[in-house]
Amino acid sequence: MKNKLRLGFLPVVVVLLLALLQGSSLAQQPSPDLPPEKAKQFLELLSDPELKAWLEGKIPAVTDEPGLSISEDILSLEAGIRARIGALGAAIPRLPEELSRATDVVSRDVNSGRPGLVMGILAVLIAVGFGAEWAVRRALARTRSAVAQRDAGQAILFETVALLTFALASAGSFLAFGWPPLLRRIILTLLLAFIAFRVVRAAARLLFAFGGATSDPSDRPTPLFESEASIRFWRWRVSLVAGFLLFGWAIANLIPGLGFSREVAELVAFLFGLGILATAIDVVWQRPDGRGSLVKQSFLTLSLIVLWGAWVAGLLGVLWLGIFALVLPTALRGVGAAAEALAGRSRRSGAMGVVLNVLIVRGARAAVIAAAVAWLAHIWRIRAASLTFSETDGFLITGLLHGIIILLIADLLWQLSKALIEYHTNLAPADGSSADQLARSGRLRTLLPIFRNALAVFIAAVTVLTILAGLGVQILPLIAGAGIFGIAIGFGSQTLVKDVLSGVFYMMDDAFRVGEYIQSGSYKGTVESFSLRSVRLRHHRGPIYTVPFGELGAVQNMSRDWVIDKITIGVTYDSDVELARKLIKKIGQELAADPEFAADTIEPLKMQGIDNFGDYAIVLRMKLTTKPGTQFGIKRRALMMIKAAFAENGIKIAVPTVHVESGGETAAAAHQATQTLKKSKTLLEAVSDTP
Question: Model's pTM, two decimal places?
Fold first, then answer.
């Protein structure tokens, strides 16, 4: 995670630099207002019919014929690049003249004949801001506890308050007085650049300090960088990049108002871009966290140089394509790692903690992509001619950009919903919950997976329809056609429809829930999960049944409320039945008082009486009422205790015997013994089939 964060610094800042400096370098001087008389004369001239006819003859009509061939497009592009570079080169000889004119403007309209006035005012404002910030930091330090000093959220809050105080004090002090317009613009622009520079440095410092994760919340946060040398390296590079970026933006935006031409403003922006380029190449080759292979370093260096050259040549399409191809993957990894570290430090629990974690992690990545898409949309609106050649292409590109935003929103909604559903599904019932609360909890765990699947289908359908509508597709006929197609599918797949509808009615009837043991026909087992058309049953011996709802039929739920288990024991005819009844009652009371079984016993074990007189035994019938699923353990313990008590008190458990006599009765006795053994085997198989 540390390497991901480190690699994420440089590309993001390079993007910001190119975005800001590019916009500022192309800024032109405001055109002078046209006198109303001349504008009126121009409009009257355009309304002349003869002039209209002459213009129609001179201007060729627009046709739908194909445009230029590829070779002609390349030649046109090459000519445009040559013209642009030629204009920039022609601006170099004009630098002394424009510099002299700008010096006169500064001396007359800015400094008012007092050299250094701008720098003096700026120094005073910065001093005032630092003084106010120092006072606030001292006040906060008195109330800031040791725990707060280790908490990332508290540190960010205090740093934000301090920087906001600096900005308000310095900018407010300047705005409190009246200043000439040009001087006001220069001071505010430079002050804004300085404030933004401090914000970048503070953000980098906090990220270095709190970017790591720790397993113990009470421990001090693990620093993002293990060595002080690594921290110094990245702080210095981040400061350089921020300085070139922000002050280059400020100067490139100010010099057109001082009399410099647009080409000179572009040259200044390109020079600051060279500073960023040099810093980026230095990071590629000198970063302390591992330089990587020579091929990778060479490729990154060449990519940065090509991007700067594309900017100079005015190839905006190539520029932004290369920027986002180079930056977005690294930026997403770095921002995602930082967001995961911040989310891991969150001490919030419960549903709110789940929501915050998803918003921090997924929201951070979505914010990076949304910012890239927003910038592309901005470039498209301003530089449409450099990206496409027709209105249809522009409409499609805009629709695709909007579609990406819609996908990001849909992904965030789905991740939030899925995380909340998983949280409530895995939430264990609280200790001491009542039977009604346990029932509601089980029903919730049963219905939530089905709701999650339905919600996924709904979000996907709405997202696709919204994107298609943004691309200009008429979705009403599509919806109508989907309805007709759905009806046809319904007739063709009646079994599937039957399964889905049966599942809906099973859920409405609350026939079974996740974790309950059910039996339906030849299927039985514990309900593990649901889908829209089937239920998964885990047999007590291990196999899993995936049963469509339409095949379940009548469902026998063995996990609701209570269960009565009938137990039969055969004793010999010479046994004392009354003594056996007393012994069984005593055993039932002991089991009901046993802490292991007391909570699960509803009615203790007791003998109901003699069930029947068998061929070789008196069959005694017993009854046990317990909570569902617990009767097996109590029954096994009861049978062990009954056997031991009967043996101590001379009560014999009857077993089939074979008495062989000579003569014709031998075959009959053998046949009777065989039948008895078969019955015993069947009874043992039935007992062994219980969980």
Answer: 0.50
